[in-house]
Amino acid sequence: MQQPLYVLTESTQRTSGADARRSNVAAGRAVAAAVRTTLGPRGMDKLLVDSSGTVVVTNDGATILGEMDIEHPAARMLVEVAESQEAAVGDGTTTAAILAGELLARAEDLLDDDIHATAVVEGYHEALRLALDAVDGMRIDDEIDREALVTVAESAMTGKGTGDIATGVLAEIVVDAVLQVADDDRRVDRDDIRVFTRTGASAAATELVRGVVFEGEPANDTMPRSVEDATVAVLDTKLDVRSGEVDTEYTITSVEQLDAALSAEDAERRGIAETLSAAGVDVVVCSKKISDPVAAYLADVGILAFSNVKGSEARAFARATGARRLGTLAGIEAGDLGAAASVRVERHGGDDVTFLEGSDDSRTVTLYVRGSTDHVVDETERAIDDALGVTVAASEDGEIVPGAGAVEIAIADRVRSGANAVTGRKALAVEAFADAVDAIPRTLAENAGLDPIDALVDLRARHEREGVAGIVIDGPSVEITDPRDEHVVDPAAVKREALESATEAATMILRIDDVIAAN
């Protein structure tokens, strides 16, 4: 008899056909279930403990999925959905994960009814086109001014832990930060908005600094700790005696020669301080090392200097002050220097914290986030990150839509109407897509304590009558009404990204019919 042919090693595990599909779908649904209860203003928190005992308490979908130790490859795809959503628009990660899980669950029912995966995938893509049309149809025509951006930011933070600072106040700070660094075309470089956290005060002490905040101390203890109307130099060169590029030896045969060599080095170090002082520099920010002797001479001439500053912080200093980053002191001119309203070093939480406040048109800002505990600070920072993401998206895209599940109700209605024009078995997949989208308002209702079926019926009825209906939560009250009247809105970009990324992940998983894993 012919000997068997082994293509894979004996330790390789292979799952094919229906078993592979069920495993992948189950993994995707498990990921969605992990974050489902966190959706909305009444969402619950998750307590995550890693192997080292570090505790994280949050209801942020991206953080939860990022902290979970997920091994299943299909489940990892849904985590990547949340990560891409976070990177693209900064919010909507939970919505994207839930939607992807629901799309997989609905598809499994169709596959069990002998509908081929290709038909399901094609139907989902047809439904996605209808869904994006529905998002366009829900756009609010109001001008995206500062007030509208504050509404967007506050909506994103509703239900997040922000300590004792009201989300409305925090939203004002976030919007001011975005508007400060936006260019004439309303484009924003997120690197220009920094977030610096420190415990030791209540969250209400959170503030916007039009400049840079970083953990740094003067290079010498005798340097001034506060400078007003400062002229700033940002350097990318080591401040010490110059050294050659090749190894060189000098023979010294007398004390006089040694004294002359030391005097020359001392003169060079003193010359560094004199050069900077003659140029009118008050503050030096150096990304390289400042030697102790040079730091002492800088202190003697009244210059405040910071040594070994991170490259990102040096960039921020340059953006905040208008200074050029210099690789040499040779030929330093006034045009190379920047200006700051003040630079001061304060003691916060047992550490030196440096504040550089630029001019009113500073191109870099810092959100200085305070909190009584690490958990409060971390959760406030996550809320701010979400708010920054949606504010930037709304500012750049210029489009907002009603929140509170209103867009999802409109999408489901539009997709079901469009299913009538789809022929063949793809129409069933289009219907399944609409059912999957319904999971978002249904989950919002369930997390708010409503009966999800009754709420969904009421939402659909009001949508048919008035064109807009959402589940608006204001403190202890829950009402099905027009979210626009209650200032609950979202950037259209968040909805589009969630739909596209969830559909892409679900269809990718559905196309898998063989899982081959090496042991």
Please describe the topology of this protein.
Blueprint: E1 13-16, H1 17-36, E2 46-49, E3 55-58, H2 61-67, H3 73-89, H4 93-112, H5 117-137, H6 146-157, H7 167-181, E4 193-199, E5 207-209, E6 211-214, E7 226-235, H8 255-278, E8 283-286, H9 292-300, E9 304-306, H10 311-321, E10 325-326, E11 338-348, E12 351-357, E13 365-371, H11 374-397, E14 400-402, H12 406-419, H13 426-437, H14 439-447, H15 452-466, E15 470-474, E16 477-481, E17 489-491, H16 492-510, E18 514-517
Helix pairs in contact: 1-3, 1-4, 2-3, 3-4, 3-16, 4-13, 4-16, 5-12, 5-13, 5-16, 6-7, 6-11, 7-11, 8-9, 12-13, 14-15
From the structure above, extract its key features:
519 residues; alpha/beta; 3-stranded mixed beta sheet; 16 helices; 18 strands; 48% helix; 17% strand
Content of β-strand: 15-25%
Helix content: 40-55%
* Regions with little confidence, pLDDT below 50 for 5+ residues: none
Structural class by secondary-structure content: alpha/beta
Biggest pleated sheet? 7 strands, mixed
- Total helical elements: 16
Span between N and C termini?
Answer: 30 Å
Oligomer description: single chain
Mean pLDDT: 85
Global Rg: 29 Å
Number of strands: 18
| Global geometry | elongated
